[in-house]
Structures are given as structure tokens and as C-alpha cells.
């Protein structure tokens, strides 16, 4: 853990000194955490930054700086009202409980997530390409299936040039049975050709460019930015993050899509938690807060979760 934190801190310092690529002295020019043999590192304990929360469901921002305004009551009220920011009640306790339940890091995402699927001895641009590919394969697919497909692809040779030379039928056999594998063959081929032609066989380093690639959506783009470029640009919201956020009422009103959930979470969740939240909630959703029949009786949040009561009423197995 210490090694991980040091690696992350050193990488961030180096990234700040060097620029956008997150390169670290003595490490390959890949994301800083890539120097730890593909192990991802996470932010701090989440207590730093963000609002302080008083249990009232709001936290106060910093308000105005020094020496501004005349200090009248009307101006103070206007400033106070602007600085009131909504946040869900109990979220810090709920998050701490989830961290505790995820302490062993033994969910499928911990062993087979996108951070574990690339070849950490490959050149940096190849590692980044493999991160992108693993995330493209992972949508609508269990981590175990994605991981197995990535292994087959890596044995075949998972580089831009090699994929372009592979016919569609062979590529399909290699990635089957990932969800929507036929479409993914098409998207992988199209995206890989664009990478070759427009990005020198590397991947783009902005969200805007990433979402323009065939088969790449916002969730994937933010995760690629975080994992491959060590640059947190947004919260990666998949079906687990979307479901659990709504169960815990972490959005002002119920959200209908993962993209709506991403916007709602980014509105109040302190930025230093954005990277951690995906990993935490995905594993929590795989092990405890299951899509059907969540294990509420085993959950440390059972007494402070709005959905736990409904779950008990609906005959949960827990
Ligand atoms: S109490 Fe049940 S629904 Fe609520 S977070 Fe825990 S497992 Fe999920």
C-alpha cells in the first residue's frame, strides 16, 4: 500500500513537472501508476477536500475571497445562498462503510478489471492501446469474460498493426463470447485504423477525441483517461455505479441513465474521490449490493441506506 501511494505521489509530481503524459523519471512514458507492474493506485482516504457536511444535507463552499464587496446583510445572504451546495445526507458514513466492506479487494474487478488486463512490459503506447481495448470489450460483459478475451488477444499479439492485419473472423473468435462481440469486432477495427492514421498508433489523450472513436462512450473515455493517462477527467459510471448511487440517493433526484448519474455525482462529490468511486462501487456491486437481491443483511449500510427498507419489503434473499 505504501509502495502504491509513493508510486502515485511520485508519478503525480513527475506528471506535474513534465506535462500531460504522466511520465515518471526512470519509468516508461506510460501513466505513472503503470510503473507498479500494472497495479492501480488510488487517492487518499477521501477525507481531504470537499465540503465538511453537518448532517443537514448541505455543505458550505468557500464563499468569496477577501476584500470583496461591502459586507452588507443583503450581500452576505446572497453569498451564503450561492455557496450552499447540496450533498446527500450520510454519504461520508456510507462511503466509509463501503471502503470497509471492500477492504480485502477480492471482487472480480480487483483481479480482472481494465487495470489488470494489459501487458505491463509492453511499450507505453501499446499498454495504452490495450487499456482502451479492454474497456471496449468490457461493456455488457463480465470481468472474467473480458479478462479471458484479453489474454487470448495478447497471446495473438495485441498491437495496432497486428489487429489491423487480423481478419474479422479471427478477431471474432478471439473475443467471443464478450457481449455484442460482432459489433465490437467492427468497432475495434475502425478505431484501430483511426489510431494508426491519426494518432501514430497511440490513443488520444482527451475525452473529446476518445468519444469520437467508434464504440467509445463517456464512461469508457473517463476510465481510459484515468488508467492510461493518469488524468482524472470525470467519474466512470457503469451499471453498478449507476444502480448503487440511486439506491443510496446520491443524486438529488433519481437518474435514468449512467450518464445522468455521472453528471449528478460530479456536481457534489469531491474531485479527489472521482477515481476511487468507480473501483469501490463496481466491486461493492459485484459482491454485496447485487443488481437483484442485494445482500442487505450483510451490508454495513443497512441502517442508513434508503433502499434497504424497500429491499426487505420486497423479499430480498439476504
Ligand atoms: S443496504 Fe442493501 S441496497 Fe443498501 S447499499 Fe447495502 S446492499 Fe445495497
From TrEMBL:
Domain HhH-GPD stretches: 137-287
Reactions catalysed according to its record: 2'-deoxyribonucleotide-(2'-deoxyribose 5'-phosphate)-2'-deoxyribonucleotide-DNA = a 3'-end 2'-deoxyribonucleotide-(2,3-dehydro-2,3-deoxyribose 5'-phosphate)-DNA + a 5'-end 5'-phospho-2'-deoxyribonucleoside-DNA + H(+)
Gene Ontology molecular function terms on file: 4 iron, 4 sulfur cluster binding; class I DNA-(apurinic or apyrimidinic site) endonuclease activity; DNA binding; metal ion binding; oxidized pyrimidine nucleobase lesion DNA N-glycosylase activity
Cellular component annotations (GO), alphabetically ordered: mitochondrion; nucleus
GO BP of this protein: base-excision repair, AP site formation; nucleotide-excision repair
Keyword Cytoplasm: no
Region annotation Disordered: where it falls in the sequence: 41-85
Protein origin, superkingdom: Eukaryota
EC number(s) from the headed UniProt entry: 3.2.2.-, 4.2.99.18
Compositional bias of kind Basic and acidic residues: 73-85
SUPFAM superfamilies from the UniProt entry: DNA-glycosylase
Keyword Aminoacyl-tRNA synthetase: no
InterPro entries, per database record: DNA_glycosylase, Endonuclease-III-like_CS2, Endonuclease3_FeS-loop_motif, Endouclease-III_FeS-bd_BS, HhH-GPD_domain, HhH_base_excis_C, HhH_motif, NTH1
One matching Pfam family: HHH
Keyword vocabulary terms for this entry: 4Fe-4S, DNA damage, DNA repair, Glycosidase, Hydrolase, Iron, Iron-sulfur, Lyase, Metal-binding, Mitochondrion, Nucleus, Transit peptide
Feature: compositional bias, Gly residues: 43-70
Subcellular location: Nucleus; Mitochondrion
Obligatory cofactor(s): [4Fe-4S] cluster
Protein family according to the UniProt entry: Belongs to the Nth/MutY family.
Function: Bifunctional DNA N-glycosylase with associated apurinic/apyrimidinic (AP) lyase function that catalyzes the first step in base excision repair (BER), the primary repair pathway for the repair of oxidative DNA damage. The DNA N-glycosylase activity releases the damaged DNA base from DNA by cleaving the N-glycosidic bond, leaving an AP site. The AP lyase activity cleaves the phosphodiester bond 3' to the AP site by a beta-elimination. Primarily recognizes and repairs oxidative base damage of pyrimidines.
HAMAP family (alphabetical): Endonuclease_III_Nth
Annotated protein name in UniProt: Endonuclease III-like protein 1
Classification lineage: Eukaryota, Metazoa, Chordata, Craniata, Vertebrata
Amino acid at each position: 500500500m505504501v509502495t502504491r501511494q509513493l508510486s502515485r505521489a511520485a508519478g503525480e509530481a513527475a506528471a506535474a513537472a513534465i506535462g500531460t503524459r504522466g511520465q515518471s523519471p526512470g519509468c516508461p512514458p506510460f501513466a505513472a501508476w503503470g510503473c507498479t507492474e500494472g497495479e492501480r493506485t488510488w487517492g487518499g482516504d477521501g477525507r481531504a477536500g470537499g465540503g465538511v457536511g453537518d448532517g443537514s444535507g448541505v455543505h458550505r463552499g468557500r464563499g468569496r475571497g477577501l476584500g470583496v464587496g461591502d459586507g452588507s446583510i443583503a450581500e452576505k445572504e446572497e453569498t451564503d445562498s450561492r455557496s450552499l451546495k447540496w450533498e446527500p445526507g450520510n454519504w461520508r458514513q456510507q462511503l466509509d462503510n463501503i471502503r470497509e466492506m471492500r477492504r480485502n479487494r477480492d471482487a472480480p474487478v480487483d483481479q480482472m478489471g481494465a487495470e489488470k488486463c494489459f501487458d505491463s512490459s509492453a511499450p507505453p503506447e501499446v499498454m495504452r492501446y490495450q487499456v482502451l481495448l479492454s474497456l471496449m470489450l468490457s461493456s455488457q460483459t463480465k470481468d472474467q469474460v473480458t479478462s479471458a478475451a484479453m489474454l487470448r488477444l495478447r497471446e495473438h499479439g495485441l498491437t495496432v498493426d497486428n489487429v489491423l492485419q487480423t481478419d474479422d473472423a479471427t478477431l471474432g473468435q478471439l473475443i467471443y463470447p464478450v457481449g455484442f462481440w460482432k459489433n465490437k469486432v467492427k468497432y475495434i477495427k475502425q478505431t484501430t485504423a483511426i489510431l494508426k492514421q491519426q494518432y501514430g498508433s497511440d490513443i488520444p489523450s482527451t475525452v473529446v477525441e476518445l468519444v469520437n472513436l467508434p464504440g467509445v462512450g463517456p464512461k469508457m473515455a473517463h476510465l481510459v483517461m484515468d488508467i492510461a493517462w493518469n488524468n482524472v477527467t470525470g467519474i466512470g459510471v457503469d451499471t453498478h455505479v449507476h444502480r448503487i448511487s440511486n439506491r443510496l440517493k446520491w443524486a438529488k433526484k433519481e437518474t435514468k441513465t449512467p450518464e445522468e448519474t455521472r453528471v449528478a455525482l460530479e456536481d457534489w462529490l469531491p474531485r479527489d474521490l472521482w477515481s476511487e468511486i468507480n473501483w469501490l462501487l463496481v466491486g461493492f456491486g459485484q459482491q454485496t449490493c447485487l443488481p437483484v437481491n442485494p445482500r442487505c443483511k450483510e451490508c454495513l449500510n443497512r441502517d442508513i441506506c434508503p433502499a434497504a427498507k424497500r429491499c426487505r419489503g420486497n423479499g430480498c434473499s439476504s
